[in-house]
Design goal:
Radius of gyration: 29 Å
Number of strands: 2
């Protein structure tokens, strides 16, 4: 009897330890990994996987994806009209139409409806006053959509400044004109390769290999399309390696979504019974929403793979104390001042964060606040116009802690509450008096005298 009790107790102890280890592992994967400062590939893979799931479930990304879904519906007919207009000029309209059906097999009915709208759009916009209005509406919808996509990517990358108007006109026009041509050329290359191989090998022995190769090539093109979007659309410098990693993950998720929608067409009959001829519309909306969620989640993964420390100490950053925030603010300003005094090239906020092991989110937000206070200014270093560096905007030899406290304290709106000064006059005088004393004492400490160490 005692042996049985011992065995039962041992089993219970084993399962308790197993459950405890499972909980510890789950806690590390979900939260603890972001406090792990080791730079091993295992930790980075866990961080990337963690971020992939969190990004897909992120409420903010879901909201932005819904906004882009609406704009896509507005721009889909003008975009297809432009693509088909270019396709007709090259004589590839039929190939382009079949390529669109092959690229979006889950949306054949929606594309058929859109093609009918496109034909009517091109017929009406080819003559009279509607020609000029139609072209302006087409360009506005496309540029508005691309601008919204850039804004979403810039928010992911913590980039406050977008492209200038001139760069929007040049870059967006290039994107709008080049992508349809690349789509037409890629479809032509696939058709040419298929017909050429079948001509040289008519026996059919290589048919399965050819089909597998073309399917894989289409997936590679999807990977490159997503990678190119992450590389070119954000108004900052994105590394090719990070764009490829995110492009492969987003492209694979997109291909899986296509397969799920294609294999789930059997359930469309249920929607037909409810929506009738408009059954394609809710499916199109769901598909667009998921596509944009995948695209934006890939943008977050691209950003994190390039700045993996961006999401380190996430919980701590959300609960940062004001004292620690002030210390970090002084540190960022001291780095800029001392690099200027040593006649070294100014650094971008991302470079400062990586060089001194600080969270990129905090450094970027701090730099923006220092710029707003007139203590720092953005400068272009070399040919890097996409991500400006920061340097002091006033004489560095005169910048003290008192200067920082005075200027940062004045940032923002004041005196907007009615009768506040009258009701709290004594309190206001006491606060201002203490503040003047603190600024006076801090004015004796120059930032150029503070020691800044990288290690």
């Amino acid at each position: 009897m005692k042996k049985k009790d011992r065995g039962t107790s041992g089993n219970n102890g084993f399962f308790a330890r197993l459950i405890s280890r499972g909980r510890n592992l789950y806690g590390y994967i979900t939260d603890g990994v972001w406090n792990d400062t080791s730079n091993s590939w295992k930790v980075n893979v866990l961080k990337t996987a963690n971020l992939s799931v969190r990004s897909f479930l992120n409420a903010d990304l879901q909201m932005r994806a819904g906004y882009l879904t609406y704009q896509t519906l507005l721009a889909i007919v003008p975009a297809l009209a432009l693509v088909f207009a270019i396709g007709r000029g090259f004589g590839f309209q039929n190939i382009l139409q079949s390529q669109l059906f092959n690229s979006f097999p889950a949306q054949r009915e929606a594309l058929s409806k859109a093609f009918g709208f496109v034909d009517s759009y091109l017929a009406q916009s080819s003559e009279g006053l509607f020609l000029g209005v139609g072209i302006l509406f087409l360009l506005w919808t496309l540029i508005s959509l691309i601008s919204s996509i850039e804004d979403c990517f810039n928010k992911i990358w913590s980039v406050k400044t977008g492209r200038t108007l001139w760069r929007k006109l040049t870059d967006y026009t290039a994107i709008v004109l080049i992508l349809p041509i690349l789509m037409i050329c890629s479809s032509g290359i696939l058709v040419f390769m298929s017909s050429t191989v079948e001509k040289f090998f008519p026996s059919g022995f290589f048919t399965p290999i050819l089909k597998w190769s073309l399917d894989f090539l289409s997936i590679v093109l999807v990977w490159l399309f997503f990678a190119g979007s992450y590389l070119l659309i954000p108004n900052t410098k994105v590394k090719f390696r990070s764009a490829i990693i995110a492009g492969v993950m987003a492209g694979t998720a997109y291909s899986m979504l296509q397969w799920l929608f294609l294999t789930g067409q059997i359930y469309v009959t249920r929607y037909n019974a409810i929506y009738g001829s408009f059954a394609f519309l809710p499916l199109l909306l769901i598909w667009l929403q998921l596509v944009w969620v995948i695209t934006l989640a890939g943008g977050v993964i691209c950003f994190s793979s390039q700045n993996i420390n961006e999401f380190s100490f996430t919980d701590e950053v959300s609960r940062i104390s004001e004292n620690y925030r002030w210390r970090l603010t002084v540190a960022v300003m001291a780095v800029a001042v001392q690099r200027f005094n040593r006649e070294e090239a100014p650094m971008t906020p991302h470079e400062i964060a990586l060089e001194y092991g600080m969270p990129v989110t905090l450094v970027s937000a701090t730099a923006n606040k220092l710029i707003e206070a007139g203590l720092l200014q953005r400068v272009i270093v070399g040919q890097n116009e996409d991500e400006p560096a920061v340097c002091p905007s006033i004489d560095p030899s005169k910048i003290t802690l008192g200067t920082m406290f005075e200027r940062l304290g004045a940032v923002g709106t004041t005196n907007f509450i009615p009768d506040f000064d009258q009701r709290f006059s004594a309190l206001g005088e006491a606060v201002l008096s203490l503040r003047k004393e603190c600024i006076g004492a801090a004015s004796k400490i120059f930032l150029s005298d503070l020691t800044v160490s990288k290690s």
